[in-house]
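Table S2 (continued). Query chain:
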Amino acid sequence: MTEMVHGTGPAHAGEPVLSRWWHTVDRWTISCVLLLFGAGLLLALASSPPLATRNNLPPFHYFERQAFFGAVALAVMFVVSLMSPVTIRRWAVFGCIASFVALILLPFIGTDFGKGATRWISLGFASVQPSEFLKPCLAVVAAWFLSAAQEPGGPPGRTLSLALVLAAVFLLVLQPDFGQAALILFAWGVMYFASGAPILLIVALAGLVLAGSTLAYNGSAHFARRIDGFLAAEVDSRSQLGYATAAIQEGGMFGLGVGEGQVKWQLPDAHTDFIIAVAAEEYGFVLVAFIIGLYATICLRALSRLMRERDPFVRLAGTGVVAIFSAQAMINMGVAVRLLPAKGMTLPFVSYGGSSLVAMGLMMGVLLALTRARPQGEIGDILLTRGR
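Corresponding output:
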C-alpha cells in the first residue's frame, strides 16, 4: 500500500517532468520566496544608490547586480528542486568537501574587505563566501549520518555528524565568524534533538557552547567588542546600531515614504546587514510585518510537510535546512533592533550579496526537493520490513 503525503495531488506515471514537479512541489513556498526576492529588489532600489555614489559607480549598479544574482539564485532553486533526495545527498557530499577545502584555503587566498574577518574569496568580478554554501550541504550530510545511526547495525552516525560539525565550527572560528559557527551548531542541535537525542544531552551541549563563548570573549578582541557594544547601557547614536535603531523608530507604522529615509546615507551596510532598518524607515512596520510573515509561512509550511515524512533522512535534512533559514532571518532582524549582538549576517533573499543569494537559492531548492509529495509506504509496512 502506498499513498501520497503532504496533501498534494498525486503524480501519474509517464507524466512530464515539469508537470510532475508542479503537482508535487510546495507552491506556497515558491510564492513566498518570489515575494521576498521582490521585496529585496524594492529595498535595493532604496538602499544601494548611496553606496554606488560613494564608490563612484552608476546609481543602479548594485540593484542590477542584485537582480542578476537573484535570477541565478532562482534558477539554482528550480534546478535543485527537481532532484530526488538521493541525488541531493550525493551532491551535498561534494559540496561539503568543496566548502571545507575553500575554508581551509581562506587564510592563504581569502580577503576581509576591511571588515576584520577573512571570509571571502575574491574572483575579481565577484566574491564568494564559502560558509554560505557550507550550511545547506553540511545540514544534508549531517542528517545522512544521523539517519544512518538509526538503522540496525548502522554506523556511529551521531558521533560522525558531531565531528563534522565541530570541524566546520573550528574553521569558521579561525576567520573569525562566530555567527555562522553558532548558526551551524544550532541547526545541528535541532537535528540531533529531532533524531531522538535525550534532552539532558542537549542541555549539556548548550553548556559547552556557553563555555566556548566565554573563551571566545576572553580570547578574541573582535568577538568581545561586539558583545560589549551589545551589552552597553546606552547605544552610541553614531554607531551602526544607533542609526538603525533611530531609523526603525522614525518609520513608525507606515514609514516616511519612498526615498525619504536617511539611514541608507549613514550606514555602510544598509544594503546588507541592516536592510530591515531601511524597510522600517521608508515603508514602516507594515512592510516589516509582511516580510516576517513570508519567512514564517515558509518555515511553517516546510515543518508541517516534514512532520508527515516517513524517511528519517528527508525529515532530518529538511529540519536542519529550516533551522538554518529561520535562525538566519531572526538573527539579522534581531541585530537591527538590538535583541542580539552584531553578527554580520544577511537577510535571506532580501539583503544584497551574490554568495548569499545563490546559496539561499540552493538552500530553498534543497528544501523544496525534500518536501515534494512522494508515494510512500504505509508506516506499518515500513516497521514490519525493518523488523525482519
